[in-house]
């Protein structure tokens, strides 16, 4: 189906994979183009990555034949949201320190594992603060439930249920555990993110394996040294929507969060903040702090408050 209002040889589409400087773009009529940027590529974004998986772009289709590329990207449209990471300077010669790993997502899927690597609620709290700041829907997935004591994990995750976050408990050894997550992904553009080795790629393969056209095969044998994801890849879901598999991160980059605005992204703080003696209270050391009082009275989970402090002091 040709779009009528476009120039001949031009079309718009979605970037589904970025490998080096080659981008796979799925056009609105479902045709797939191997694309590249050129010095005239324009962008409506300020972030450093010119093109990222999830971007909407305009293409100029080049002559088919012996060309290595089938299209050039003429315009990168404004992003609704961006998941970023700090580049590993030692491994990457690029001058860009911040890289966009997924653009335009509706939903962030935070994946942790119950064991190997151990469950980090501190990391979960960083992701949640980010999701609140960007007003993204967020799902928390605790994977590898076959390796841990379910009661211990449930106790650790109880505060998140109390706060109204959606928590999913999965094991790739038990197909039935995947169904609620599969349902929550339908029709949306979701990005899976988390530490390396928690099972993001394995989960995505199993969730939608039968319909997946392009993905990195993940080694299903347990143990170290398995193939890990190095580039984000977007996959269409059978009944609409997409998932983006992203590379494992060391520490999640909080982009626009500052010491001043962090307090608004811990949702349990909002109800008690009016009790603080100072309206600009940072909830760290001030006397008469409503948040600290709530922590002592048991109304706010102490581990969440500790995460708040750790994140607060990690910011500039
Ligand atoms: N026991 C158990 N092992 C799992 C489960 N899910 C994944 N694994 C194993 O964990 C290892 C890492 O899985 P991956 O899917 O590669 O992890 P990843 O999160 O994609 O890692 P990166 O691509 O490095 O970010 C693999 O050996 C998987 O087989 C699970 O539910 N239970
Ligand atoms: Mg992976
Ligand atoms: Zn306070």
UniProtKB/TrEMBL annotation:
Free-text remark on how the cofactor is bound: Binds 1 zinc ion per subunit.
Documented EC number(s): 3.6.1.-
Domain CP-type G: 94-252
Domain of life, source organism: Bacteria
GO cellular component: cytoplasm
Keywords: Cytoplasm, GTP-binding, Hydrolase, Metal-binding, Nucleotide-binding, Ribosome biogenesis, RNA-binding, rRNA-binding, Zinc
Binding positions (GTP): 143-146, 194-202
GO biological process: ribosomal small subunit biogenesis
Localization: Cytoplasm
GO molecular function: GTP binding; GTPase activity; metal ion binding; rRNA binding
Keyword hit for Ligase: no
EngC GTPase domain sequence ranges: 103-250
Cofactor(s) in the UniProt record: Zn(2+)
Residues reported to bind Zn(2+): 276, 281, 283, 289
Principal EC category: hydrolase
Pfam entry (one): RsgA_GTPase
Family per record: Belongs to the TRAFAC class YlqF/YawG GTPase family. RsgA subfamily.
HAMAP family: GTPase_RsgA
Assembly description: Monomer. Associates with 30S ribosomal subunit, binds 16S rRNA.
Record function comment: One of several proteins that assist in the late maturation steps of the functional core of the 30S ribosomal subunit. Helps release RbfA from mature subunits. May play a role in the assembly of ribosomal proteins into the subunit. Circularly permuted GTPase that catalyzes slow GTP hydrolysis, GTPase activity is stimulated by the 30S ribosomal subunit.
Protein name: Small ribosomal subunit biogenesis GTPase RsgA
Naturally occurring in which organism (per UniProt): Chlorobium ferrooxidans DSM 13031
